[in-house]
């Protein structure tokens, strides 16, 4: 291994999260956090994702469609070295531009942006606050979005997709007349992400609906100034041409192929939809290093498409999807699976020490890897939006956020002897449209007060980034609704129940859930706060590392309660015993969520990785596989054809599953707003009121559009 390779591997952080490198002159070069999600078509990338709740990790190597064979070969070599450095436990994935796995896409919530060129062409990653830009992005996708840089011309447009004209100081979104509501919302989020990360929050966004261009004459003037007069006819929409690998992965027949390079290495071929490589621990180092290349050779020999998914894993570090293909796979100390005894794979030791601030400043790549600009020990100032103005929050209440409010959090830290700023805009789920708009307006005022220096970050309730959580030292509390505004007499409820998640002070938070027994979950930790004392309740299948005994009003009277040993007063406080989610989440058969939709013109099932309640699309049917049961969740705006196709597909899914699933596995049909506990328990902090006011996507789209449009006319 070269010295450069060793330096790159030594710089790897042991903290959870995402780390990305590009291949530059056959070396691994860190990609700055602000550029995450941006991929040059002429380059190859290595993406490492480490989970916070365990020591497991995934390694992806991404191949741009115009990358060279040398770069692809170098990326494969570095992936093998990285895997060995981490003890052989990570699962390796080969990703091809335009055909990325659902797991890979899930890391980039605001979508993937494909840029022209690459390192060899002299292109560099994002230069924050640079305005010398002119590009056109073709945005596709409803769940996982991609934005591809195309020729800046009307000939690139079609009537079914969305296009972003990025001019540096202004971004104009043009919505095709046949694009749908969710696609428009996703595209706005892409535009906002570009504004916040690449322009430091100082670019204006405008939206034009292709079917109603007369309603936006000034924005159309901007577009035609750049592109020229709009032609009388644009291309018809084209369906997504990415094959649905996620659906195939559940239905394709799986077969073992014994390959010649080692009796301890195997290839599992899922009928061409994906290829998995299993490496036995007794295989030689040379054989293990060749596993990935052999898989690629196997794909060529079978004449499968070059974008066929490849996963490589080591004995003891098998992925959940791999185990999902075996009906009775067993781990550690049992003799099932491949007929040998398994033990948990080793991974490099997780460093639980605090950040070394000086080291982060001296080595910016570490800050990028941690997704932390520092150790979160800087100065914090918090304001709440009150009567559309800023009201300072008492420092004693820092870390407490109410779902009915919006907040501005200004974080100040030192770097190279200079003051640096990050301005977070936190938006509560129950905040009004006026408050969200006022929050954005006041953020601009604060930005001007500091001469444009703050980096602005929009934070939606429940989606807080790690640095934001770290600022509050593990004591962040999110109240579901209500407000902390002065003069508002909100009676304190007799009890409050919080779901606690996190492993360190850098990632812990408590989220309020309905105060009743049905909110409990055997897989999690909860804190029940009454007017007399606090109970810290933990389920039988998880003992939290963060016991959250610091909640206000809980000093000295905390009582730890294990599931099954609750005192009578515990149940009295919750209004009596009631059924709750008690199924043990089997790590060998993790729940899987699929979106079932025919909005592209044909019925497709697309897997949603790392899913949450927000991923339930009101316009579609969703399939949740908990192994013991299959749930079909029907959104309020799903059409009848989708519902019928989803029912048939659920039966086909069971019948064709490679693990030989019981075809009589219960299929449970439920409608939006009427979800049983056995369904909601698979989602963290389920919100029973989410759809009780108005359709979430429609409201969000309305709020965002009004916010981004405000002030744009002044620029035009």
From TrEMBL:
Domain Gelsolin-like: start-end pairs: 26-105, 146-213, 262-323, 389-469, 603-679
InterPro entries: ADF-H/Gelsolin-like_dom_sf, Gelsolin-like_dom, Gelsolin-like_dom_sf, Villin/Gelsolin
BP terms from Gene Ontology: actin filament severing; actin polymerization or depolymerization; barbed-end actin filament capping
Keywords: Actin capping, Actin-binding, Calcium, Cytoplasm, Cytoskeleton, Repeat
One of the record's GO molecular function terms: actin filament binding
Region called Disordered, residue ranges: 228-248
Cited Gene3D superfamilies: Severin
Protein name: Villin-like
Organism: Salarias fasciatus
